[in-house]
Each structure stands twice: as structure tokens, then as C-alpha cells.
């Protein structure tokens, strides 16, 4: 009945959606499974002389705001009465804002332009389409809200990623502070998250990566408290954050697997049995994650006409086992150079030494919260990669970075623990001053704008501005591959009608992205150069 009822949807649904019966049927079946599971749990609770599931949930949810308010200070472990903590965190966040703002207006990169033009700017229904995995759905919804309120300027499109990037700084502080109770850990991890160019890049790039990173840190914070005492609010927040992360990107399974292993390992080393850990925490959380993720993906399944594009697109299609080791090694050789670009070599060596030292000290002291963190994350990512047989992009692994910084801070705190408080404060603020100098260099030299990641095309706006006074609807445009979406965005942004491309009467213009092409790669016709700017050259066919 449920399937028939959903297929016979009312006329107010968009016509394009009604033409996707396969997706509607799959969504109906998944919804039926969710209701069946929830009904079964409710029946089981009634048999045990408890309230039914829905009555219990209603009663718990009524108490949710008060419980959340009472437990927030415990979750963050942040003392508003400690001036050093307040001043340190505020200074780092202000530094993070200051170094990110100049890059918020950099030219739109191809991937973020594709996300905006292909999904966000096409109406509410298109937000849930999945014809390409560029659509990080939850992030796209946030961009839709941002641009609906403020407009379509690059700053407005990037605002959700920017705010998530600032949230990463604060969450890194709280995770470091909570994981051992030491202020220095929070200071070091937050400062590193604030100034690392790779994190600055993705805080100013309208994709969902910083959102997933923020969610991963939130899950890490929850694990620390759930190990102490699992509660309804903590389990519920864990389920909600996990489902939102998976709704943003299925690749959230990479950090999620590691965090689940970390949670299980900490419960076991603190005396819980496998049976209790599984039944009391892991199983109910797992069921909740599956249910909420299905509910969030129902509109995606309907609009995308099924789950195939979600779980079996060309970017996540499994590779042959024989190819996996070579491809994995090739990709992992790129991770370090990509993550740590423009970081001085002496600092990288020092940071690596402190991270290794911190992990060794934690294991020797049986401080399992720190000692098992990185091994659990590595094991989780390895298991997901082997099971999926898909080599992840470097950027999907950036969730490792703040956790690395926490262990690095642990190493530094262990090394300087015998120092006087005054000397420790001097070291902290010396690092902060060095961070400020480093950030000034990034801004002055426009370092982040020049990163080629996600199809950067710095000359795209100048190409459109040069064409604006001369182009007509009779003309045609030819663009370098992997450069078109930046151009499409700026035609839309500058309100220039894009030529239909099927006329022979007008001129032919060629936009060349010089970092990947020359004009000879695009045409062998005689041309004249009209304009050149940075990585862009504009040509016209010479008749």
C-alpha cells in the first residue's frame, strides 16, 4: 500500500520527478523498511513492559533542549572563566578569519562553479539530483539558503564552507582540550588548523569538505564523552551528525569507520565487554545512523531515479583487486605534498617528530584516548578502501589533519611539561606570532589563489569581461577542457547571455586556460589574440 500510495503522488510534485518511477519505488521500499524496523523495535519495547518506541522518543525529545544546555559545557570542556583559554582561542579564530577573508573573493573554481550552476541555482528539486557526485547534498542545501538570502557573489556561495572552516578551528581546540584536559593541546591543534594553507583553501572553496571535517571533529568530541557515559543526547547527536555527514558525502564513511573503531577500542580498554559495547552503544547507534541516513536520502533517491548514481557512479565504482595496491600507493604519494604545500621543511620534520613522539608517549603512559586515535583512523580508512575497492581523492582524507594536530600537540605538551608556566606561555605566543607572520606571507603572495585544485581558472572573470562588450548571440565560444564551468558562472554573474553555439554567421572566440592547453590544442584555424591575463588567453577566429 505504501509503494502504491507513493507512486500515485499528487499533482503538486514537479513533473520531472513524476517521470522517475524507479526512484520513487526504491524510496518507498526503503521507507517501508525504516517503518518496519521502527515498528519492530516499538513492539519489542512493549513486550518488555516499556513505552513504545515513538512514545519513548517523544518523551526524550521533549527533554532534549534542557539536556543539551546542561551538557554543552561538559561536551566542550571549555572554561569561560579561564582568561588564557578565552584569549587564546579568540586570537586564533580571529587569525583564521583574517587569513581566509582575502581568499573568499578569488575567482570561482570549476568544481564549485559546477556545484552552484548545476545544482544550487536550478531550484529546490535539483538540490537533490545526483547526476554527478559534485553535489554534496547537505552542503548544497546550505549554499541554497545562503545564496537565497545574500545573493550569488562568490563570497555568498562560499559562506557555508567558510563558516565550517572556522568551526573546524574551534572544534580542534575543544577536541585537543577535552582529549587530555590540557590547554596546550587545544591551542596547538587550533593554531595549526587556522594557518594550514590546505585547510584555508577548502574553507574558501564552495564544496562540502570542511563541513565533513567539522562533523568528524564533532564525532570525536562525542566519543570522549560517550566512553565516559553513553546518554540519549550524546547517542542522538552522534547519529544526527553521522547522518548529516553521509548526506553531505558518502565518503564520510572513511572518518566514520575510524571513529567507530576508536569508540569500540576505548570502551574495551576501559572494561566494557564486547557484548555490552555492541548492544548498548554500537548496535543502537548503527541502526539509528542507517535509519536517519535513509530518511535524508529519500528525496535524493526519488530525484536521481534510484540509488545507482549514489553508490555506483564512475567515481566510486569498485576497481579490480589487482589494481588497488598500485593505484593506492600512487595516490598516497600525492597526499603529503598536497596537504603540506608551502610549509617549511624544517617545520614538517619537527611536526612529524612531535606527532610520533606524542603517540609513543601516549601508548607508554596507557593514555589510550590519544594512543589509539591515529591507529583507529588509519585502520578504519584502510577497511573502507579495501571493502569499496576505491582509491579516494586526497581531499577526502583531510579529516586526518586536525587529529594529527591533536597528537602533535600532545607530543609538544609532553616535551614541555617540566617547563615553567611562564616559559610555556611564551612558547604558545611565540607559535602564534610565527603563525601570524606565515599568514601575512600567504595573503601578500596570494598563495592559496594559485593552487590548481578543483579546476582553478584565475582568468575566467577577465575573459568574460573582455567578451561582454563585443559578443552577440550569433557568435560561438570554444573553451579549454575543465575550464567551462568557471566561464559559465561568470557569464551568469555578469549577466551576459551565453551564445547558443549553433550559429555560423558570427565570430568564433577561443578561451584558453594556459596551464593545461595552448591555442594549437584547441584549433588549427588562423586566430588573432585579443587579450591575455594570468592563466587565460582570449583569441578570435580570423576570417
Instruction: Indicate the percent of residues in helices.
Output: 55-70%
The ordered string of helix (H) and strand (E) elements is HHHHHHHHHHHHHHHHHHHHHHHEHEHEE
What is the radius of gyration computed over CA atoms, rounded to a whole number of angstroms? 26 Å
How many strand segments? 4
**Largest β-sheet summary:** 4 strands, mixed
State the separation between the terminal residues, measured CA to CA: 66 Å
Give the amount of beta strand, in percent. Answer: under 5%
The low-confidence runs, each spanning 5 or more residues with pLDDT under 50, are: 1-13, 75-81
Mean of pLDDT: 85
Class inferred from helices and paired strands: mainly alpha
User: How many DSSP H or I helices?
Assistant: 25
Describe the structure.
The chain has 543 residues and is mostly helical. Helices cover 65% and strands 4% of the residues. The chain contains 25 helices and four strands. It has a four-stranded mixed beta sheet with strand order 1-2-4-3, covered by helices on one side. The longest helix has 30 residues. It is globular and about 80 Å long. The N terminus is likely disordered.
Question: What are its keywords?
Answer:
25 helices, 543 residues, mainly alpha, disordered N terminus, four-stranded mixed beta sheet, 4% strand
How would you summarize this macromolecular structure in one to three sentences?
By secondary structure, the chain is mainly alpha-helical.
Amino acid at each position: 500500500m505504501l509503494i502504491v500510495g507513493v507512486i500515485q503522488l499528487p499533482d503538486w510534485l514537479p513533473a520531472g520527478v513524476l517521470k522517475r518511477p524507479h526512484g520513487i519505488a526504491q524510496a518507498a521500499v526503503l521507507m517501508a523498511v525504516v517503518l518496519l524496523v521502527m515498528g519492530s523495535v516499538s513492539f519489542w519495547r512493549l513486550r518488555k513492559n516499556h513505552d513504545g518506541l515513538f512514545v519513548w522518543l517523544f518523551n526524550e525529545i521533549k527533554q532534549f533542549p534542557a539536556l543539551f544546555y546542561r551538557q554543552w559545557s561538559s561536551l566542550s570542556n571549555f572554561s569561560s572563566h579561564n582568561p588564557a583559554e578565552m584569549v587564546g582561542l579568540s586570537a586564533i579564530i580571529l587569525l583564521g578569519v583574517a587569513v581566509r577573508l582575502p581568499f573568499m573573493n578569488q575567482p570561482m573554481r570549476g568544481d564549485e562553479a559546477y556545484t552552484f550552476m548545476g545544482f544550487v541555482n536550478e531550484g529546490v528539486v535539483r538540490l537533490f539530483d545526483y547526476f554527478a557526485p559534485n553535489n554534496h547534498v547537505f552542503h548544497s542545501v546550505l549554499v541554497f539558503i545562503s545564496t537565497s538570502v545574500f545573493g550569488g557573489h562568490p563570497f555568498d556561495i562560499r559562506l557555508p564552507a567558510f563558516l565550517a572552516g572556522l568551526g573546524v578551528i574551534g572544534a580542534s581546540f575543544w577536541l585537543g582540550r577535552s582529549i587530555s584536559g590540557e590547554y596546550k593541546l587545544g591551542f596547538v591543534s587550533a593554531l595549526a588548523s587556522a594557518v594550514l594553507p590546505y585547510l584555508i583553501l577548502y574553507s574558501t572553496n564552495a564544496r562540502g569538505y570542511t563541513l565533513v571535517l567539522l562533523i568528524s571533529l564533532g564525532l570525536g568530541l562525542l566519543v570522549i564523552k560517550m566512553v565516559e557515559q553513553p546518554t540519549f543526547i550524546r547517542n542522538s547527536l552522534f547519529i544526527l551528525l553521522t547522518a548529516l555527514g553521509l548526506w553531505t558525502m558518502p565518503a564520510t564513511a572513511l572518518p566514520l569507520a575510524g571513529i567507530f573503531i576508536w569508540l569500540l577500542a576505548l570502551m574495551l580498554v576501559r572494561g566494557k565487554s564486547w557484548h555490552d559495547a555492541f548492544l548498548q552503544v554500537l548496535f543502537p547507534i548503527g541502526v539509528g545512523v542507517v535509519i536517519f541516513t535513509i530518511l535524508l536520502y529519500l528525496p535524493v533517491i526519488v530525484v536521481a531515479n534510484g540509488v545507482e548514481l549514489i553508490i555506483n557512479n564512475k567515481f566510486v565504482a569498485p576497481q579490480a583487486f589487482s589494481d588497488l595496491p598500485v593505484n593506492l600507493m600512487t595516490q598516497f604519494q600525492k597526499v603529503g605534498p598536497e596537504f603540506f604545500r608551502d610549509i617549511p621543511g624544517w617545520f614538517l620534520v619537527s611536526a612529524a617528530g612531535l606527532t610520533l613522539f606524542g603517540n609513543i608517549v601516549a601508548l607508554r603512559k596507557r593514555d589510550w584516548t590519544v594512543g589509539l586515535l591515529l591507529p583507529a583512523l588509519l585502520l578504519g580508512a584502510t577497511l573502507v578502501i579495501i571493502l569499496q575497492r576505491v582509491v579516494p581523492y586526497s581531499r577526502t582524507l583531510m579529516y586526518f589533519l586536525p587529529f594529527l594536530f591533536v597528537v602533535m600537540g600532545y607530543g609538544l605538551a609532553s616535551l614541555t611539561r617540566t617547563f615553567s608556566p611562564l616559559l610555556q606561555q611564551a612558547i604558545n605566543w611565540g607559535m602564534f606570532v610565527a603563525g601570524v607572520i606565515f599568514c601575512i606571507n600567504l595573503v601578500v603572495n596570494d598563495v592559496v589563489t594559485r593552487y590548481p585544485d578543483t579546476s582553478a581558472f584565475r582568468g575566467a572573470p577577465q575573459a568574460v569581461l573582455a567578451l561582454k562588450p563585443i559578443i552577440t548571440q550569433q557568435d560561438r565560444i570554444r573553451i579549454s577542457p575543465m575550464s567551462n564551468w568557471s566561464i559559465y558562472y561568470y557569464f551568469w554573474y555578469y549577466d551576459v547571455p551565453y551564445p547558443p553555439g549553433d550559429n555560423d554567421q558570427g565570430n568564433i572566440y577561443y578561451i584558453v586556460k594556459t596551464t593545461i592547453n595552448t591555442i594549437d590544442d584547441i584549433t588549427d584555424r588562423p586566430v588573432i589574440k585579443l587579450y591575455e591575463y594570468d592563466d587565460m588567453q582570449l583569441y578570435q577566429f580570423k576570417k
